[in-house]
Every structure is written in C-alpha cells, then in structure tokens.
Amino acid sequence: MTSTTPASRVDVDPEQACPIAPVVDIVFSRWTTPILWALHEYGRQRFVELDRRLGTITPKVLTQRLRQLERDGLVVRTYHPEVPPRVEYEISDLGRSLAPLFATLAEWSTANLDKVDRAREDYDARERPGARRL
Q1: Pick from 106, 102, 88, 93: which is nearest to 32 by CA?
Q2: CATH topology of domain 14-125
Q3: pLDDT 10s digits, 15-62
Q4: What are phi and psi of 28, to 5 degrees?
Q5: What residues form DSSP beta bridges with 76?
C-alpha cells in the first residue's frame, strides 16, 4: 500500500513540532490573559469586581473562563457560606508563576508594537503582484 502523503510532508504531533503550543492554548485563549493579569495585579476579587474591571466580557463567558482556569490550576475559587454567599477568585501559585512571561511580553509589546503597526501599514500600502484592484 502506498501513502498519499507527499514525501516532503510528514504528519507530526503539533506538541512535538512546537512544544509551547499547549501553553499558548491554555494561557492565551481569549479572556484568559486579561483575567490572570487582573487577578495578579489587583489580588483576590469577587466575580462582580472582576466583571467590572474587565469591562466588555459577558458574565457567561467570564464564568466559563474562570471555571476553565480553576480546572487548569491557574485560579483558586473560594466559597464563603454566608448570607448572601460570597465567592472570591485569586490567582494560584501556578498562575503566578506566569508573571515573568507576562512581564517579558509587556516589555516586548512596549518595544515592538509600533514596529508591527508600521509593518502592517507598509504591507497594506504595497501593491502586490496578482492582487486584484477594486
């Protein structure tokens, strides 16, 4: 039996091709980074405080992301059985261990985002061969 896969293409497990891919999936999915950043910067917060701080996130999405972050061990949820019940969220030690990564990304952002903007403007301004004119 012959393979239909070209000889130059080999099926590789994405985690072997790029060992940081699983980390990117966990940490950099939509809303995860702002939630972790807010909990790291401002400490333990109630749901409503976090919701206000993040602004445009819906309560449903915030709930889903917090549950996933708790499942991943990056956030700790504390339930206080009082009337009315109180729930607080805080970044875990595992989540806090991402702080150097976030600091490095913040530095990179400050040093390079203007270069990315210029590159995009240059690219968009170029007339590319084969591109159709409107």
Answers
A1: 102
A2: Arc Repressor Mutant, subunit A (1.10.10)
A3: 678 888 888 888 888 899 999 999 999 999 999 999 999 989 999 999
A4: -110, 20
A5: 90
Nearest to 36 by CA among 107, 103, 92, 113: 92
* DSSP alpha helix (H) spans, the chain: 14-17, 21-27, 32-42, 47-54, 59-71, 93-96, 99-125
Question: What is the spatial distance between Cα 42 and Cα 35, in angstroms, rounded to a whole number?
Answer: 11
The Cα 28–Cα 4 span in angstroms is 35
The DSSP code for 56 is: S
Tokens of 24: 């990117």
Domain parsing of the chain, residue ranges? 14-125
Sheet containing 86-91: which strands, arranged edge to edge? 45-46, 86-91, 75-80
Q: Whole-angstrom Cα distance, residue 56 to residue 37?
A: 15
From residue 108, alpha-carbon distances to 59, 103, 114, 116, 121 in Å are 31, 9, 11, 11, 20
